[in-house]
């Protein structure tokens, strides 16, 4: 089944070129099934790029997915046209009475700030609390995973000596967990962050289970409340060229940045990237949708509690 997104969302045309199955709202109405309702709080600066990345990985599922994009009153995006936000995004205040089968909260370029210093922290924590009673399963990505771990469980983040940047090898700690069903013993996932969390801090919290980690990038995936909360420290949803764009952007600004690890052919930034994570990214999101959303969410969405 396809993912159901607004008819004019820019992601549709890009994904059609990639042979991704996405349909508009008007066509989806003709299909007589209850779609999975997902809310996405997109905190990334290049919102159209992130929308496309997420739709790409969410579309590889036999489920019809209905997507609501959420914006914050306390934050105004400087890198996305205001017309795009007005047309496709809805303020949290307008949807907080609704129930959702799933919620995704993205990363954000504020990781070097203390959580309480982030201008929209109060509104974000309100959404964290709302999700516990209005969403079947929530997935937190990169900075939002750190923020949610801090808010829910008091797990601190730490500034790294240098940016964690590249596509790193990971292992699956619990091959029987449905989130990693079908995964190989080792898989790759991109990371792009200046902060991290420490295994020993997670181990202090009995509610948290570490599902996957990397010798180089540290803990990658955690689970809490039997899967109602999933924390992912990397960016499996990234498109092939995203790390390349970040590297060249920072080089052009004369910022301290190293070549992303395990990324370019022959480790040469003049050559194209080697995509090592696409199949596992698709499997990660389809497993989440199937086993932690669709299989456990009530048919009557208002019954979520």
Summarize this entry quickly.
Helices cover 30% and strands 26% of the residues.
Which helices and strands occur, and which strands form pairs?
Elements: E1 3-5, H1 11-17, E2 22-24, H2 25-28, E3 36-41, H3 47-58, E4 65-71, H4 82-88, E5 89-91, H5 92-95, E6 100-105, H6 121-134, E7 135-141, H7 143-153, E8 158-172, E9 186-196, H8 199-203, E10 209-214, E11 218-224, E12 229-232, H9 242-252, H10 278-294
Parallel strand pairs: 1-2, 1-4, 3-4, 3-6, 4-5, 6-7, 7-12
Antiparallel strand pairs: 8-9, 8-10, 10-11, 11-12
CATH class (first level) name: Alpha Beta
Number of helical regions: 10
Tally of discrete structural domains: 1
Note the beta-strand portion.
Answer: 25-35%
CATH level-four homologous superfamily name: Class I glutamine amidotransferase (GATase) domain
Shape: globular
The CATH topology annotation reads as Rossmann fold
Q: What would you report as the Rg, rounded to the nearest angstrom?
A: 18 Å
Termini separation (Å)? Answer: 27 Å
Give the name of the CATH architecture.
3-Layer(aba) Sandwich
Q: Give unreliable regions as ranges.
A: 19-23, 25-32
Mean pLDDT: 89
Order of helices and strands: EHEHEHEHEHEHEHEEHEEEHH
Work out the oligomeric state of the chains in this entry: single chain
């Amino acid at each position: 089944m396809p993912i159901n997104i607004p008819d004019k969302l820019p992601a549709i045309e890009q994904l059609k070129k990639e042979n991704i199955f996405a349909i508009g709202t008007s066509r989806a109405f003709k299909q007589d099934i209850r779609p999975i309702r997902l809310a996405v709080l997109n905190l990334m600066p290049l919102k159209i790029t992130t929308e496309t990345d997420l739709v790409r990985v969410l579309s590889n599922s036999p489920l019809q997915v209905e997507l609501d994009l959420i914006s914050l009153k306390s934050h105004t995006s400087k890198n996305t046209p205001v017309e795009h936000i007005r047309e496709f995004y809805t303020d949290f205040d307008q949807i907080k009475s609704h129930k959702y089968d799933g919620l995704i909260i993205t990363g954000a370029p504020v990781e070097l700030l203390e959580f309480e210093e982030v201008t929209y922290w109060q509104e974000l924590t309100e959404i964290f609390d709302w999700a516990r009673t209005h969403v079947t399963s929530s997935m937190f990505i990169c900075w939002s995973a750190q923020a949610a771990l801090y808010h829910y469980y008091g797990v601190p983040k730490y500034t790294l000596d240098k940016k964690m940047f590249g596509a790193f090898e990971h292992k699956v700690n619990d091959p029987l967990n449905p989130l990693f069903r079908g995964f190989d013993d080792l898989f790759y996932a991109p990371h792009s962050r200046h902060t991290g969390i420490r295994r020993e801090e997670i181990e202090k919290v009995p509610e948290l289970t570490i599902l996957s980690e990397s010798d180089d990038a540290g803990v990658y995936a955690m689970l809490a409340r039997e899967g109602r909360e999933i924390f992912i420290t990397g960016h499996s949803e990234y498109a092939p060229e995203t790390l390349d764009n970040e590297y060249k952007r920072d080089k052009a600004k004369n910022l301290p940045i190293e070549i992303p690890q395990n990324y370019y052919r022959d480790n040469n930034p003049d050559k194209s990237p080697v995509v090592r994570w696409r199949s596992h990214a698709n499997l990660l999101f389809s497993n989440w949708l199937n086993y932690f959303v669709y299989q456990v969410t009530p048919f009557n969405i208002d019954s979520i509690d």
